[in-house]
Amino acid sequence: MNFNQNPGQVSGTQVSSPMGERELMDDALASQKYMTDTYNTYTNECVTQNVRDEFMNILSEEHQIQSEVFDTMKKRGWYNVPDAQQQKIQQAKQKFQSQSSQG
């Protein structure tokens, strides 16, 4: 691949529309979600403590990156999350409190 070509052209192929910043951020967030899911599985299924600890460190780092990407997208209005209604918060809280007291 020749990196000295025009930005819209790679090896004789014209790229019609490069990804914009929002699309790159969407892709980054999706990738981070996949990475954290994968590292979580590795961590849960690891039988060697020192390897598990290292996976936990990596998982924490990946969650931090995911959080930063999410926060940036939210600030820019690219990822809208509606505020939870107080009634639904109370219902969820009561549900989990009753479950934890039963078991």
From TrEMBL:
- Say which domain of life the source belongs to: Bacteria
Question: Which InterPro entries does the entry mention?
Answer: Ferritin-like, Spore_coat_CotF-like
Span list, region Disordered:
1-27
Q: Pfam families, alphabetically?
A: Coat_F
UniProtKB keywords: Capsid protein, Virion
Q: Where is the composition biased (Polar residues)?
A: 1-17
Q: What protein is this chain from? A: Coat F domain protein
Species source reads Caproicibacter fermentans
